[in-house]
Specification:
The chain has about 230 residues and is an all-alpha fold. The chain is built from 10 helices and no strands. The chain starts with 8 loop residues before the first helix and ends with a helix.
């Protein structure tokens, strides 16, 4: 008689895959937690953040960059449009990046490793700059004459008083990780796919740029530094 045994390799392979996935999730979550905790170290530096905002504003004018108000005035032609922009700012950033990483991990593992490393370096560099150069966003800068669209039209992810915000550091405007992560998503998807339409992924960082500037959460230079 011939005995038959069930091969253990498929089951072991699934267990290894689950362990790798859990390890990656914990790694990404830990990096994000360290970043969020580190950002809060620069809260309370209001005077320095506002002084740096004046310097950035003056630098943009010296470089002849268009005023952020140009984009904001276009958004504020419609309450629905500015509300959509606020929602995009509040709701798209993290979920889009998370879905992007999950898709790469499952479908393009070689691209995933490269992308995860680049995002980790980008985020670490951003944290270092947030701590060394606290920067108030343009919505707080009197010289900019901009509206805090999140507070006026909603939704917003920030408290009205920056100094009392224990959830988010509002003095971490430069660089804009909203734009940096969006650009990384577009580059990653273009590199990982072969569709002739893949260049359309660049619409995501373009829309993100217009949103972060139009809602007065970031300066043009914040996006340039992130890029």
């Amino acid at each position: 008689m011939t005995s038959h045994t069930t091969p253990a390799r498929p089951a072991a392979g699934k267990r290894d895959a689950r362990r790798r996935l859990i390890r990656e999730l914990l790694l990404v979550a830990s990096l994000f937690a360290v970043y969020k905790a580190g950002r809060m170290l620069s809260t309370g530096r209001t005077d320095e953040a506002l002084h740096n905002a004046d310097r950035v504003w003056d630098a943009e004018r010296a470089l002849h960059l268009p005023g952020e108000g140009v984009v904001q005035r276009l958004l504020m032609h419609s309450d629905a449009l500015v509300h959509t922009a606020n929602t995009y700012y509040a709701a798209v950033h993290f979920p889009a990046t998370a879905l992007f990483l999950v898709w790469l991990y499952l479908r393009r593992p070689r691209h995933y490793l490269w992308t995860r490393r680049v995002l980790a370096v980008l985020t670490g560099a951003a944290l270092a700059l947030h701590l060394s150069f606290p920067l108030a966003p343009p919505r707080m800068l009197g010289a900019a004459h901009l509206v805090d669209t999140g507070q006026v039209y909603g939704p917003t992810v920030y408290r009205a008083e920056a100094a009392a915000d224990t959830v988010a550091n509002q003095f971490a405007a430069m660089p804009s990780l909203h734009f940096g992560w969006a650009l990384m998503l577009a580059i990653g998807m273009i590199a990982a796919t072969r569709s002739r339409w893949r260049a359309l992924w660049l619409l995501h960082p373009l829309v993100t740029l217009l949103v972060v500037v139009g809602t007065a959460n970031h300066y043009w230079l914040d996006a340039i530094v992130a890029a």
